[in-house]
Design goal:
Layout lengths: L9 H11 L29 H12 L23 H7 L2 H4 L11 H18 L3 E2 L6 H16 L3 E5 L4 H11 L5 E5 L10 H7 L4 E8 L10 H10 L3 E6 L17 E5 L15 E5 L3 H4 L7 E5 L5 E5 L6 H4 L12 H38 L4 E2 L10 E6 L4 H10 L6 E2 L10 E5 L6 H16 L1
Length: about 450
Amino acid sequence: MIHPYIGLTEEEVKLMLQEMGLDSIDKLFEDIPSRYFLKKSSKYSKPLSEWEVRTHIKNILSKNRVLFYGRLFIGGGVWPHVVPSIVRELLKRGEFYSSYTPYQPEVSQGVLQALFEYQSLMAELLDVEVVNASMYDWGTALGEAFRMAKRVTGRNKILYPHYISPERLEIAETYTEPSKIKLEEYAQNINDGRIDIGDLEEKIGEDVAAVYVEYPSYLGFIPLNIKKAGEIAHDHGALFIIGVDPTILGIFQSPGKLGADIVVGEGQPLGLPMNFGGPLLGIMGCRMDIKLIHQLPGRLIGMTSTIKGERAFTMILQAREQHIKREKATSNICTNQALCAIATAIYLSLLGKNGFKKLGEQILARTKYMMEQLSRIDGVEAPLFKTIHFKEFTYRVKGKNSSKVILEMMEKGIMAGICVGKWFKELGESILTCTTEVHSKEDIDHYVKSLREVLEK
């Protein structure tokens, strides 16, 4: 019998390879592009002690530059937001720590109720009837939504906007390629970001499963004709998918009011720190339509009663899932971001309706103020899109390389934003920057002052 803590012998490895019809271990890794393999062996010729490893890692980490939130103006999918201490404190409860699925309701009532509350709060916020619990992040939720649209409609084309998050698009492409789904871009106006209705109408047809929009866009502007895009989708028998940053929903119309059939988004702003880019929280929900619900991936928690008539919670509609349907399931998602979903439920409960509205108002006011202040600097064009922005916007500096500007701002202790011209060539040397409730007026003024100093060098 093979011992679980002792490595395999050469003979055992040989037998296992023979069973799989392979002649070498390298064959197991053929799907991985060669550029990801080390071209040389590790510089460590011998094992290190625990203390040596700790020292080595500490030396590597010392190279990082630590900035407090007031100097972080970077977004693009993960944003600096206030995380109340009570959120972290309640998450320390031992019964919440496991991310595994609560298959046994008789011993999981606490987790199940917390997830039910998350679904309920998120459904109210998005203005749709059904929300799952949950997906990995916005990108994976988007990929699942595209696959879901194909299953529901039987069509194989998705139309997406030009100014989409490039990372989310890559994830969606990875998710949809095995299902032979064709992704096609539609145009947006370069002046105000509006959806090009003419281009959308030209590209939509009987083969289109869904039209997707982002709200706000990856570049922070709000397309002012989102509802019209949804009407066009429905007129042609397609589904309408809206991807949303939920912090906008305290002051702007909900996806449900805009006509969304499926809603996806990122829950990180709702009680989760930036964490070097993860873990995140994928939001996914749909309107009350049995065809949509049966194709919705992920866990669904419902409220019921025991044989004694007591209120209870349990997983529902499990026949959609991989532990029952196996390869015929709607998705292979299993272990998910349940702890992150609970954090979001705590955060939303803490803020309440009025607090959430104030959050949106604060972010909108800071965005407007920062755009105005940057636009007063000679040589700075801000914002690039002449419309309403929320949380993020793009600007460019005449005659300056955006990467160089960001590096010089970093020398002043400010993470100024992201270079987006590499993805959107028509925007040139542009920078996507972000401001939220964590930034005071002094923080924004310091950013503006520092940028002015960089340009005067």
